[in-house]
Amino acid sequence: MDPVVPRYGAGSLSDVVPSLLAGLGVPGAVDVLGLAGPARVCVLLVDGLGWELLREHPADAPFLSSLPGPPITAGFPATTATSLASLGTGVPSGEHGLVGYSFEAGDEVLDALRWSRYGVPDHVDLRSALVPEEVQPRETVFERAAAAGVAVRQVLPREHRGSGLSRAVLRGGSFDGVLGFGDLVARVSSALWSAERVLCYAYHADLDALGHVYGPGSEPWRWQLRFVDRVAAGIADGLPPDGALVVTADHGMVAVDDLVDLDSDPAAALREGVRAFAGEARVRHVHTSSPDAVRSRWESVLGDRAWVVSRAEAVAASWFGPRVDDRVLPRVGDLVVAARGSLGLVRTRAEPALSGLVGQHGSLTAAEQHIPLLVASGGG
Question: CA-CA distance, 284 to 303, in Å (whole number)?
Answer without folding.
Answer: 16
